[in-house]
Amino acid sequence: MGCQRCALADTRTNVVFGKGPRDAGVMFIGEGPGENEDLQGEPFVGRGGQLLDEMLSLVGLSREKNFYITNIVKCRPPKNRDPLNTEQDACIGYLWEQMELIRPKVVVCLGRIAAMRLIKPDYRITREHGQWVEKDGAFYTAIYHPAALLRDPTKKPDTFADLRSIRAKIREVCPEVYE
Ligand code: URA
Predict the structure, then answer these.
(1) What is the rounded CA–CA span in Å between residue 35 and residue 157?
(2) Span 6-16, mean pLDDT?
(3) Residue 26: helix, strand or coil by DSSP?
């Protein structure tokens, strides 16, 4: 709460740091807190977050038990605009430290902003969602952001296919997540 590394500090209610068990093998990473998250201090607690939790429970994942969830920036961008590169740069050190502590084997980016930051700068979510990239011993993929699924439910079947692929990857590289 003392962080003043960027101007988002001036407008936030809460810092939304992250949630999940310390030994989670899987990490989900969104772009930045929205209004509900800013008010409650927890990631993905709005309508999109509820949809995400429902979908993830179908492949045996819950934030209480086996995944960690956080964002690229920890404070809400005003009116939910995309976080600026300067804000991402100021904040990303917190994510690197979270990843160093949790050491996830599987990293899932939620939407293009996280994928552009963590997979590659020219990531194309429509074309590349669900594909796997190995980096420093962990496997990275991206799925549509839950807000995009709320706006356009015709994207849901693609996301369910991606979730089955995530379940298969977890069984392959960190089966203990499901034990
Ligand atoms: N959208 C995000 O990207 N992250 C949240 O925590 C909530 C909504």
Answers:
(1) 28
(2) 98
(3) strand
How many whole angstroms separate alpha carbon 132 and alpha carbon 169?
9
Give the span between the Cα atoms of 60 and 132, in whole angstroms.
20
For 43, the token pair is 């990631």
Q: Kindly give the distance from the C-alpha atom of residue 172 to the centroid of ligand 1, in angstroms, as a whole number.
A: 28
Question: What amino acid occupies position 70?
Answer: T
Residue 46 near residue 32 (C-beta atoms within 8 A): no
Residue 20, ligand 1, Cβ within 6 A: no
Q: Retrieve residue 1's tokens.
A: 């709460």
77 lines ligand 1 (CB under 6 A): no
5-to-8, 10, 63, 65, 77 alpha-carbon distances in Å = 8, 10, 28, 32, 14
* Nearest ligand 1 atom, CA 113: 3
Is 77 within 8 Å of 7 (Cβ atoms)?
A: no
* Contact between 141 and 166 (Cβ < 8 Å): yes
Per residue in 23-82, pLDDT (tens digit) is 999 999 999 999 999 999 999 999 999 999 999 999 999 999 999 999 999 999 999 999
